[in-house]
Amino acid sequence: MKKNLPIIIAGPTASGKTELALGLASLLGAEIISADSRQVYKELTIGTAKPEGKWENGKYLVNNIPYNLVDFLYVEQTFNAGEFCNRSKKIQGNVPPQGTLPYIFCGGTGMYLDAFFFGMNELPKDENLRKELSLLSKPELHARLKAADPQSAAEIPEGNIQRTMRALEIYLLTKTPASVLRNKDKARDFTGKAFFIYLNPDKEILNKRIELRTKKMFEGMCAEASALLKKGHTKQTPALKSLGYPQAIEFLEGALKREDAIEKIITLTRQYAKRQRTWFNRYEGVMEINDLTHLSPEKIIKNFVN
Prior knowledge:
Blueprint: E1 7-10, H1 17-28, E2 31-34, E3 54-56, E4 59-62, E5 65-68, H2 81-93, E6 103-107, H3 110-118, H4 127-133, H5 138-148, H6 150-155, H7 161-174, H8 178-183, E7 195-199, H9 203-230, H10 245-252, H11 258-280, E8 286-289, H12 297-305
């Protein structure tokens, strides 16, 4: 690969992206840009699998490696692909890292990577229509989206009301599915754009990793949710809509038993991983790794970077 190309490490949740990114960044002297829509929040760490670090001189450092676009957003705020692109471009415009590679993008939010490397369509908006759609329930919105745009409905979970409403709004205004507009006239080939490492382990192996990680993080997730609720935040706080936190809150409120909450989070996480696979499988010009034993950063550098 060309040394001036950025590295992307992407794939489904629990596939080992962060560990590999940190290993590569350490060996190469590179910085990391997080492409994760939930690690942006300050007070969510365990439940989002955010790498633990510390702020120093305006940089979030993980093992002394600058890890950008994590731990900076208040829980009541929202973040989107456009903001990710703007912030990432600003970061890249600053003093470059010490190593030979620009930056390592690491995360599972495919929409962010897609927008940054292929651009974003200027799609129409209508505030009056948005107000009308806001009167519908989550199931009603998702059912209407599924009928109009099955691909978008498959990629967007029912609980993500903002993305569901936006995709439905686009269809109603343009009479064209958002998935079609998003893909129209856009090549999805990363050749020459980035060195893209796609971690895609066997389904059964990934499911087991998801199960073990969920059980390990559940107590911490509950503690984080409880702390935010005590500060006056509610279930409707954007950060607390992140994967797993609604179920943690239901457990705290007594609406779910511990084992039921954990099992529900495991199921939802597996469904999320499936949607991530669907998203990343459409890309060309990527190096797909199925065997997680090949995740050694030294092997990556030896065989593919130099």
